[in-house]
Amino acid sequence: MNINVDLHSHSVVSDGVLAPAELAARAHANGVQLWALTDHDELSGVAEARQAAVSLGMSHVSGVEVSVTWGRQTIHVLGLGVDEADPGLNAGLAEIRAGRIVRAKEMADRLEAMGVPDSYDGAMKFAGNPLLISRTHFARFLVEQGYCKNMQVVFDKYLGENKPANVKVHWSTLEQAVGWIVGAGGRAAIAHPGRYNYSAMQFDALFDEFKELGGTAIEVITGSHTPAQYVQYADVARRYGFLASCGSDFHSPAEARLDLGELPSLPSDLTPVWHDWI
Ligand code: AMP
Ligand code: MN
Ligand code: MN
Ligand code: MN
């Protein structure tokens, strides 16, 4: 039986634009049967998400997307099925969040030097949760002010990996992130691997290390992947024996490449990360 599953989405608790309950309603209206809210580095939306899902008769999995630095780049690791009250996970996420305000001020300084004044306050106006101020909020400000015509241009010119206004921080290590997630009873999944700029050797090292640390899943279908990357990362799942995950990575109706619930099915020979959850 094919069920409609979407295990990656963002609310105003991080860099999405809808409340957790609004996302639940949108997911349900789009036919989603099993859904996870996965805000960046923050679990405080999960209770509202669960309550809204349950009242709609939609199955729900708790989730979070953890920021990690690996090989001098930022990668994201999804924690699915975690106990959102787990003290170790919450302490770890609090540590990650602590660096965001300082980093945002430095990004604003860099943008100012490049001729874009007042971006700290401008970005903050888009942030539902000041402690989760992110590049996405800066990107929305730059688009609103007419500096760039869309978010993709902002990341390509200013805020993407190795672009001039992207201030690098050390998030968590892969070992910490996987440890917190597994310690909280969850499954760790490498999010949107197709977005990372690693060599083939680095990718192999990442997957080996992730598996060794207790990581068990990989996102195969996501709004960040092309159809060719669905095939490529399905193959990685087979080679490494990873469970396969899928999620839209929905942030906003205006920005979505894939809406909630609009995902193609996983290849039928893969074991879904949710195989024993419903
Ligand atoms: P941060 O956590 O502050 O580093 O911001 C990362 C967020 O920026 C991601 O979660 C995405 O929502 C967004 N992002 C990163 N790269 C892109 C991109 N190329 N296009 C659009 N949004 C992006
Ligand atoms: Mn995001
Ligand atoms: Mn991500
Ligand atoms: Mn995401």
UniProtKB/TrEMBL annotation:
Polymerase/histidinol phosphatase N-terminal domain location: 5-70
InterPro entries registered for this protein in UniProt: 35NBP, PHP_dom, PHP_domain, Pol/His_phosphatase_N, Pol/histidinol_Pase-like
Protein name: Phosphatase
Species in which this protein is naturally found: Pollutimonas subterranea
Family annotation (SMART domains): POLIIIAc
Molecular function in Gene Ontology: 5'-3' DNA exonuclease activity; 5'-3' RNA exonuclease activity
Entry-linked SUPFAM superfamilies: PHP domain-like
